[in-house]
Amino acid sequence: MIGVGTMLSGLGPRAYGRELNKKGRILLDTIPNLPQGLIDAVNFPLIDAIQGRRSRRFAKGASIPSGPLAHSSAHKPSPLSELEQILLLATVSGNTGWSNLIPHNRRYVPNIPNYAGAPGGRTFPSAAGFHTTEIFYTDDKGVYYFPTRDMGAVEAGNADGQTDLKAYLDQHKARIVKIADGRLNTPRAPEHMETHNEWCANVPGSTLVIPVADLAQHMILALCYLVQNGACIYDDVNKNPIPGLEKFDHLVDVKNPYPLSYVEQLGLTEVTVETSTACYAGMLMLQAMGLGGWMYEGINPFSVLGASGDPDVPGLGFRFDMHPGQPLPNVTG
């Protein structure tokens, strides 16, 4: 997902900000020089954000090279402000308080199910609270890691149940880790990027947000979840049961196991939901802030992660392995 442009600038009437506080749970009073754009964003109708969502690819400083819509921007690239960027990041993958766990499972009575994989809730949903997705992003200044999965509840509330937006954003900003200088290299070539994105993706001035799901960890949690709910698996690819599983028939139903391939497909689907809804939340915030941007997958994920095989395209630096008989790299962390 990419966010471009600048809107949150200029002074806003603090009295209006205080009046706005009465309508919701967000406190704006501690924001220095309260921008009018932030007041507008907080007051932006959700239904307008949903119905007005569009892919807006043309950034300041961009150029459509040819065709009937050929055009070059008269402006210089316009990076997100610090406030815009952290507001976007916290929307994509922010902490929303302690996890409420998942009660009312008769197998656990009187205890509470323990399969939530993270202590805090987040701005996007996850199967059984696994939440294995983390966020990376890049802009003109560098490449960054924004870990919020293991974040406890943000301490930004008051006795009235309101949230101090500045305190909330500051605690998220403190978690950002810079891992490289300069913009992530995503060459504008077919082996690295879809050709229809070459003119508009990861351009100067933009912020490229990259959600990365830990599918291996998600699968481990899924297997634990199955056992905790009395189920197990068998190897349907090789038509083999799991050796020795019969010793645990007091814990799981060994006569009706799940096919392993089904559990793998389910895990892939579940992490896809995480990454997609995280980006969709960000898209709604872009609408509220009046910024352009769009969700897309038109960059080679192996190039982004660091498994392209090209030393000039190190990506995010993830480790990968090549297995005999498999044409694609296996990214492992």
Detailed description of the structure:
The chain contains 8 helices and 16 strands. The protein has one domain (2-298). Helix 2 (36-42) packs across helix 7. The protein is an alpha+beta fold. The chain has helices at 14-21, 36-42, 46-51, 82-93, 165-173, 215-228, 260-289, 301-305, and strands at residues 2-4, 26-27, 63-64, 71-72, 95-98, 120-122, 133-138, 142-146, 163-164, 177-181, 207-213, 233-234, 258-259, 292-294, 320-321, 330-331. The protein has a 6-stranded antiparallel sheet with strand order 10-8-7-11-1-14. The longest helix has 30 residues, at 260-289. The model is unreliable at 1-14 (pLDDT under 50). The chain is globular, with a radius of gyration of 23 Å.
Can you give me a brief rundown of this structure?
The protein contains 8 helices and 16 strands. It has helices at residues 14-21, 36-42, 46-51, 82-93, 165-173, 215-228, 260-289, 301-305; strands at 2-4, 26-27, 63-64, 71-72, 95-98, 120-122, 133-138, 142-146, 163-164, 177-181, 207-213, 233-234, 258-259, 292-294, 320-321, 330-331.
As a percent range, the share of strand residues is 15-25%
Radius of gyration: 23 Å
The largest beta-sheet arranges its strands as 10-8-7-11-1-14
Count, helices: 8
Quick one: how many beta strands?
A: 16
> Secondary-structure element sequence?
EHEHHEEHEEEEEHEEHEEHEHEE
Straight-line N-to-C gap: 22 Å
- Average pLDDT, rounded to a whole number, is 90
Low-confidence stretches: 1-14
| Helical amount | 25-40%
Structural class: alpha+beta
- Judging from the principal axes of the Cα atoms, what is the shape? globular
Count of separate structural domains: 1
Major sheet size, sense and barrel closure: 6 strands, antiparallel
